[in-house]
Each structure stands twice: as structure tokens, then as C-alpha cells.
User: Which sequence fits this backbone?
């Protein structure tokens, strides 16, 4: 895969219906089950109507990979996704602390951290979102930019921003 | 058993005793889940003393049940049930959202509540760790505050109990508003915002138990199914069919506020005095102006019929609700003489906030306004409110009084039918003409006088859920809107709205088999499995009590008002033809297996192994005129 084929998942929160089809297909693909709590993309609904799909942004400087004490995290050369080695990971949570968006989390039943692997360049969540023409998630061609990292925000921050956008400013304080 | 988590929670609120229970395959293969299983549980636990069981007493049960198809069939719902304080029978009242999926992922197919907590509590479930927690701090709070507080508090608790896990998503929550706390018979059990199990009045039941909310976080996967590949194939087919339903995706039911009035002439206008209007101010074109999200959906749903409406400025600033959907547009709009999208959004948001049911509350508000119009109730009765048609502020004040049970609100909180009985006595005037209900349940906003809408003459009269427009009786029994079909959706438990197409409906039988391994054909459902459930529901509706009992045959009728001819519109002059209603009702009784009074036949009950129901119904049969 050449560099210009690398993908990034752009997200438009206002278009998210909250149907969680992304969680369904992600967990089916990675776990063989419908398992929202083990999905690599998680839809946060801290306020109803403000549904926030939350997933790895592949920061240019990969602070999570840097922070890993056991070298369980690596960067896939083709996709530039963060890959978790389940055997080496000790579920210490240092990558979560290092992530500006606190995006990774520990698998609900197993002892390793869960991070989006971009489905080897063809993300299932984006396909599911496109099939329903919601397009809250869209594939864009990845470029050399520091902008992507700015999307690594906690669901609380994103919820405040989106809530004040759709419900009005006083909702900023509600989460 | 596949498709099931396998366990149910039994929570005794009086003794604070919490335990797990199971149902064997024999029971589950016959009663499945949701409404079917609720009917079975209620029959077994309360059937013997049904007539004496007070729906608002500690002896009633409150059930929250999923079904084996919940989470797999696109469009997940939860079924809330118990003895209904509206019909005194069983209503399977369903609500969309993620709660039922989360509950299954926590390892439970459902919850059975008994008794009454001494002080306000909420139930917190984190997988198999289940506890009752004090709810004094949210008692009295409206929907928004209740939800915000619980999400924050429960996420904080999860984070402190599991500090290294990373961020917790929100738990899923069912709750009541102030109306439910005051044991209103027209209160809902709510989810998210603008999501409610409305029919049945289970918000009042939950309030009578001092149970403010149920919060669940489940971290397991959905239970295994028998044939996963088949399930995934069926899911995709159902998605494809519904992705093509552009009208529903765009407007949900929100384009009906104008259409059901102007075209089919079956929309309640000013307490059903009319069913026709042609107010262009009330079309989806006007409602769309307030939508901040056109496609808002619940778990797994391809249709996203919900639309998020927000009023951002002006006197109604801050109102947040769905769409509003057609029922709320009609009952909290046209039925009150309100033809403004903005005012309807405001009133719907208020009803949500108070935890009232849009249909039941809109019906009783319209009833009260007509009594005011006719001079039976006066300004004094309403503590100075001028309850004129279209006076949105007056209706909102009265809604608040109903939620608080203040003044005349205390009577209206009993729902239209009971309020009509009380007011008739109080004022010495028969107000039954203005009581547009079916066996204690306000009828959905789809009239039958024009005969252009989907319900027919027998639909409400013969429904085991009475006025519930999502569960209407139709014959022949394989009719696309047959009550046996609604029963399947409510028992499954999933949303009706992805199954308008025959093509989608036909996928449900293979879906049940792919999930559970049980082969149930449509014929078997109609003749045996579904029929058995329907008969028990019918039996419990006829047994009723303690405050009201329906008279077989006589009460299988439509509201008096519907015998009055429509006064305007393309169907002017049309009214329900009593002779034809009697004929249709008789034909339905025969088709479903009820006798000439609508009591399930002995032979029919015994064919289905319901000897105990048959014996109990002798109490009804012996009082019937020969």
C-alpha cells in the first residue's frame, strides 16, 4: 500500500444517529459477536441526542506507543494504525493516560487494551455508516498533518462542544 | 437456550432481597419473552387474585423484559408490563433504546420487581453486581435532571470501582418523572429523552413502588445464537428493505400531523369533535425548521424515525424533544386546538419532562377543555386557567397540575375514563360523551369514522390492549396489522416500524429459528403460540378490578363520540355504524375463538392447555346474561 492509499476516519458528530451500527459491525469483525463494550469504536451518549463516536485518531507522534512499557503497541507500516499485541500487553493503562482523548480502554473480559486497527485499511464502521447514508464517519485520504491529533479529545469535551452547538450554550455545563 | 442471557432478576423492594431466577425451555419456547412472557408471569403470580390486585398497590409486579430477538432484529426495544392501572388487564408497553441490549449484556433477560421500597430507591446493575441505592436526591426531579445526575453519578462510581479500565460509557437508564412518583395512571416509564413506555400507565406503578430508576451497565456480549451466519444475513436483508423507506427515514411519523387530518380525516381535533383539518401550519415543512438532527436512532435501527427538535429562541426557548412524532403532534396539538409546530414542540417537551404520556395526557387535556367549553367545568374548577382551545400556556399549566396532582389535576391524573366517572358524579352531569377511551386507555390518534386509516371497526373494541393503536385487532388473523402480529413484535422484543413490508415480515420466522433454534411458522403462531398468549391477556382484561371491571360484549365497543357523524371535511357525515360494528365484532370473536360475549371458549382454552384460565373464567361466565 502506497502512502496516498492510507486512510483516516473523519467524524461528523452532528450526523451521528446513535444507531450504533458501527459498534455492531466492529465487534462482529473483531470478536465474532455483537458486543458494544468490546467495540474498537464506542458511541458515547452522555446526553441523549449528543451521540459521540469515539475512536483512535492515529496521532502523528503516537503518545500511546511511546508510553507503553512492554512494547505491546506498534504502528502498522501500511495503515499506520496502532496495533496491540495481546500477549505482551499487561493492561496497565499507561497508553490510556498518554492518550489526549483517553480513547483506549481495557477489554471487558481479557487482559489487554483495545484500540482501533483501521480494519487493515477498510474500516467496517465506515462501511456500515455509509450503507445507511448517515456518513457521520467517512474515509479520507491520510496526509501528513498534525491536525488529526486535535480530534483526540475526551467524550466529555466533545459532548460539551456538540451539546452547546445543538442545544444551546447553557448545555456546555451539563456534563 | 440460545438468544437468552438465561437469567432474570427478581427484586423484592419491600425486603430488599435480590435474587436470580430462570425459566425452563418449556416456558420460554411457549411464551418467548416481552409481552408473551409478561402475560405468563402475571397469570402465574397474580392470576388467582387478579380482581383484588390493586395495580398501584405493593402486590402488583413491575416487569421489564427483553426478548431473544432484542438486539439482533434491527431496532431494539424493551417491554414494560404489570397489571395496568389503566385497563386493569395486561399491557405490553414497549420503548425503544439501548436499555434492553445493555441488560442482556449484563447477563439478564429481564427484571421482575415485587413490593414497595420504604424510601425512594434506584436499582444499579453492573453485570452480576446488583444493588438498591437511595434516590432521595433525584425524587421530584424532572427527566433531564434525573438523567444527567444518574449518568454522572454512575459513571463516577464505575470509574472509582474499576480505576484502570479507561473511560466508561454511559449506563442505560429507565426512569420516571414527577407524574410517576405521584402514582398517576397516565405516567410513563421513560428512557433517554422523548422515549417512553406510555400505554398501560406503568410510570405510576413504578412510582407506587418508590422506584425512581433502573440503571444498567453490562459488559458482556449479546447472548449466543444458534446460526450466527444466518442471523447476520437476515439483519442485512432487513436493513436493505428499510434503507429504501425514504419517507419514514426523512420524516418518521412527523409528516402525519397534517396528512392524517387533511387526507385520511382520522386525527383527533378538539377532543375528537372533528377528525379533519387542513391547517398547512401543521405540516412537516414547519416542524423541520426545528430539527437539529434529522436522523436519530435507537440500537441497530436502519430507519432513524426519530428527529431531534429544539427551540432555540423565543418564549419556548430550551424545549427539547423528538420530532414530535405523529401521536404527540395529534394529541398535544390538534386535539387541543393547537396548530403551531413550535407550541406543539414546547408542550411535548414539557410532557416528557413531567414523565406524562403524550397520548393519555393529551386525551385528558382535550377532555378537560371540552368540559370547559360546554360549561361543565369552569374557570374556578381550573383555579383561574382559561382552558380554551389553542391556549398552549393554559394546557401547560394544567399538565403541571396533573403531574403534581394539584387541584383538579388530582382527578385528571387518574386518566380520562376514571376522571369522567368522578366528574359525572361530582357535577351531576353525564360526561361520558366526552370520554374518548377504550377500557380505561386513551385511544391512539387514529380514528375509524372515515374508514381511511389502518384501524377498522373491530380494532380497538376487540384489542386485548384496549386503546393501544400499536396493538389493534384485525381479521382475518393473518392480516398485516393483526393483533397477533403486534404481539409478535412486543414478545420478540423489537420495533414494529422496520416491518411494514410483507417482505420484511416474512423474515421473522426464519429469524426466530436462527436465533433460538425453535421452528415457529406463521400458522403455528396464529393458531397456537400467539393465540395462547392473547387468550390469557383477554382473560385478565375481562377479570379486571378492583376499581373497574369491563362488562363482556357491552364494553367491547368504541367511544360514544364515534357514533356522532363527522362534521366537516371530505368524510362529513360519516359515523360508526353500530350494526356493522356488532357484525365485525362477532366475526372477530368467532375467528379468534371467543364466545358470543367475547369470553375465550372452553374448548379453545383446553386445546391450548389453559385449563386453569378456563376455570377462572367461569367466574365471569356465571354472571353473564343467558
Assistant:
Amino acid at each position: 500500500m502506497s502512502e496516498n492509499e492510507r486512510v483516516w476516519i473523519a467524524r461528523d458528530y452532528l450526523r451521528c444517529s446513535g444507531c450504533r451500527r458501527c459498534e455492531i459491525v466492529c465487534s462482529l469483525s473483531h470478536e465474532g459477536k455483537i458486543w458494544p463494550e468490546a467495540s474498537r469504536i464506542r458511541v458515547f451518549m452522555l446526553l441523549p441526542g449528543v451521540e459521540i463516536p469515539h475512536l483512535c485518531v492515529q496521532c502523528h507522534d503516537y503518545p500511546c506507543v511511546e508510553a507503553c512499557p512492554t512494547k505491546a503497541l506498534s504502528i502498522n507500516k501500511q495503515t499506520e494504525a496502532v496495533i496491540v499485541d495481546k500477549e505482551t500487553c499487561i493492561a496497565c493503562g499507561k497508553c490510556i493516560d498518554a492518550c489526549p482523548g483517553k480513547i483506549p480502554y481495557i477489554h471487558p473480559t481479557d487482559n489487554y487494551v483495545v484500540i482501533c486497527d483501521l480494519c487493515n485499511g477498510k474500516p467496517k464502521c465506515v462501511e456500515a455508516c455509509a450503507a445507511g447514508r448517515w456518513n457521520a464517519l467517512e474515509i479520507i485520504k491520510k496526509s501528513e498533518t498534525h491536525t488529526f491529533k486535535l480530534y483526540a479529545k475526551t467524550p466529555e469535551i466533545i459532548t460539551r462542544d456538540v451539546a452547546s452547538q445543538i442545544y444551546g450554550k447553557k448545555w456546555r455545563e451539563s456534563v | 437456550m440460545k438468544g437468552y442471557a438465561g437469567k432474570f432478576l427478581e427484586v423484592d423492594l419491600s425486603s430488599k432481597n435480590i435474587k436470580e431466577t430462570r425459566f425452563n425451555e418449556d416456558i420460554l419456547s411457549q411464551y418467548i419473552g416481552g409481552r408473551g412472557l409478561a402475560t405468563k408471569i402475571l397469570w402465574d403470580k397474580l392470576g388467582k387474585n387478579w380482581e383484588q390486585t390493586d395495580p398501584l398497590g405493593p402486590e402488583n409486579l413491575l416487569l421489564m423484559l427483553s426478548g431473544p430477538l432484542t438486539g439482533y432484529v434491527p431496532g431494539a426495544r424493551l417491554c414494560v408490563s404489570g397489571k395496568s392501572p389503566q385497563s386493569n388487564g395486561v399491557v405490553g408497553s414497549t420503548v425503544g433504546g439501548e436499555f434492553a441490549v445493555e441488560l442482556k449484556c449484563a447477563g439478564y433477560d429481564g427484571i421482575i420487581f415485587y413490593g414497595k421500597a420504604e424510601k425512594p430507591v434506584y436499582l444499579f446493575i453492573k453485570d452480576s453486581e446488583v444493588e438498591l441505592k437511595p434516590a432521595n436526591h433525584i425524587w421530584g426531579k424532572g427527566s433531564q435532571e434525573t438523567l444527567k445526575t444518574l449518568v454522572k453519578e454512575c459513571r463516577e462510581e464505575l470509574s472509582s470501582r474499576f480505576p484502570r479500565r479507561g473511560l466508561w460509557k454511559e449506563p442505560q437508564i429507565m426512569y420516571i418523572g414527577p407524574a410517576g412518583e405521584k402514582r398517576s395512571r397516565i405516567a410513563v416509564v421513560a428512557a433517554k429523552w422523548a422515549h417512553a413506555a406510555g400505554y398501560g400507565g406503568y410510570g405510576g406503578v413504578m412510582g407506587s413502588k418508590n422506584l425512581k430508576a433502573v440503571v444498567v451497565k453490562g459488559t458482556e456480549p449479546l447472548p449466543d445464537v444458534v446460526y450466527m451466519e444466518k442471523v447476520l444475513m437476515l439483519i442485512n436483508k432487513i436493513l436493505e428493505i428499510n434503507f429504501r423507506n425514504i419517507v419514514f427515514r426523512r420524516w418518521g411519523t412527523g409528516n402525519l400531523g397534517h396528512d392524517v387530518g387533511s387526507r385520511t380525516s382520522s386525527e383527533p381535533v378538539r377532543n375528537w369533535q372533528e377528525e379533519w383539518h387542513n391547517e398547512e401550519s401543521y405540516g412537516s415543512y414547519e416542524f423541520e425548521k426545528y430539527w437539529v438532527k434529522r436522523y436519530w436512532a435507537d440500537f441497530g435501527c436502519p430507519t432513524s424515525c426519530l428527529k431531534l427538535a429544539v427551540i432555540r429562541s423565543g418564549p419556548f426557548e430550551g424545549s427539547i424533544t423528538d420530532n414530535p412524532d405523529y401521536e404527540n403532534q395529534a394529541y398535544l396539538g390538534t386535539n387541543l386546538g393547537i396548530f403551531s409546530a413550535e407550541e406543539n414542540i414546547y408542550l411535548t417537551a414539557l410532557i416528557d419532562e413531567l414523565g406524562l404520556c403524550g397520548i393519555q395526557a393529551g386525551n385528558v387535556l382535550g377532555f378537560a377543555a371540552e368540559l370547559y367549553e360546554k360549561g361543565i367545568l369552569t374557570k374556578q374548577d381550573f383555579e383561574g386557567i382559561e382552558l380554551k382551545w389553542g391556549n398552549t400556556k393554559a394546557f401547560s399549566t394544567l399538565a403541571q397540575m396533573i403531574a403534581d396532582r394539584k387541584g383538579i389535576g388530582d382527578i385528571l391524573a387518574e386518566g380520562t375514563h376514571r376522571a369522567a366517572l368522578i366528574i359525572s358524579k361530582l357535577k351531576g352531569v353525564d360526561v361520558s360523551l366526552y370520554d374518548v377511551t377504550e377500557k380505561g386507555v386513551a385511544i391512539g390518534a387514529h380514528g375509524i369514522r372515515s374508514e381511511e386509516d389502518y384501524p377498522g371497526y373491530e380494532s380497538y373494541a376487540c384489542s386485548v390492549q384496549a386503546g393501544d393503536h400499536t396493538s389493534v385487532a384485525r381479521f382475518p388473523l393473518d392480516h398485516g396489522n393483526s393483533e397477533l402480529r403486534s404481539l409478535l413484535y412486543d414478545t420478540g422484543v423489537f420495533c414494529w416500524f422496520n416491518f411494514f413490508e410483507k417482505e420484511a415480515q416474512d423474515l421473522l420466522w426464519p429469524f426466530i429459528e436462527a436465533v433460538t433454534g425453535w421452528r415457529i411458522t406463521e400458522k403455528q403462531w396464529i393458531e397456537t403460540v400467539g393465540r395462547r398468549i392473547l387468550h390469557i391477556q383477554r382473560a385478565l382484561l375481562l377479570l379486571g378490578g378492583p376499581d373497574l371491571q369491563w362488562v363482556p360484549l357491552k364494553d367491547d365497543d368504541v367511544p360514544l363520540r364515534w357514533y356522532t357523524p363527522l362534521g366537516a371535511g371530505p368524510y362529513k357525515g360519516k359515523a360508526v355504524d353500530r350494526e356493522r360494528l356488532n357484525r365485525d365484532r362477532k366475526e372477530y370473536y368467532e375467528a379468534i375463538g371467543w364466545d358470543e360475549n367475547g369470553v375465550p371458549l372452553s374448548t379453545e382454552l383446553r386445546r391450548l392447555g389453559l385449563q386453569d384460565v378456563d376455570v377462572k373464567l367461569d367466574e365471569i361466565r356465571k354472571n353473564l346474561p343467558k
About this structure: The longest strand of chain A covers residues 42-47. Helices of chain A lie at 21-31, 63-67, 94-98, 124-131, 155-166. Chain A touches chain B through 49 residues (CB under 8 Å). The mean pLDDT of chain A is 95.
